[in-house]
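FW: tagging you since you asked about this chain on Friday. Here's the raw sequence from the shared folder, copied in full. Didn't touch anything.
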Amino acid sequence: MPYAFSLRDSNSKILQNISHSRKKTTPHPFHHSTKLARINFMIETQVDRSRKLTIFTVTGTVTARDFAIAIRSFYSGEITLHALWDFRQGNVKLTDDEIWNLARSVSTLNLSTRRGGKTAFVTEEGSSFVLAKMYQLITDTMSLPFKIKVFTSLEDANHWLGDEEGPAS
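HL: got it, structure written out here
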């Protein structure tokens, strides 16, 4: 059963409404989709079970809180070995401190189910690339059970995710 997540900005408060809904059509057995949405951003989540991959597609401007909600949702639901964050249509609004705090908070989660996995960030050149690279460098100093790498090409990211060994980070 797919879950739809909706976040709405109302008087500077973010309200999370979770609705469980069934589609009238039968979903593809290897995919399901989740959306985190607010007026000015969206993080759409798709799961490809055949590739053990969750794809997060970001549009609009996202904040540290938006990421934290998406990450908590991922780790409290169907966790896949690999993850791909596609920021090519999105804009990241994070401070250096928020990057550090996100990295630290992820390291406190139960990550054992992702042992040997990979997380790819795909961004355009610019500030989103720099922030994603900063996150990668910070997490490289931690003992995470999965690899993180930043790309500017979706094709390169998918190739790396499909490669069992993967190039060194």
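FW: The chain has four helices and eight strands.
HL: agreed, and Residues 40-162 form a domain with the Rossmann fold fold (CATH 3.40.50.10600).
FW: great, closing this out.
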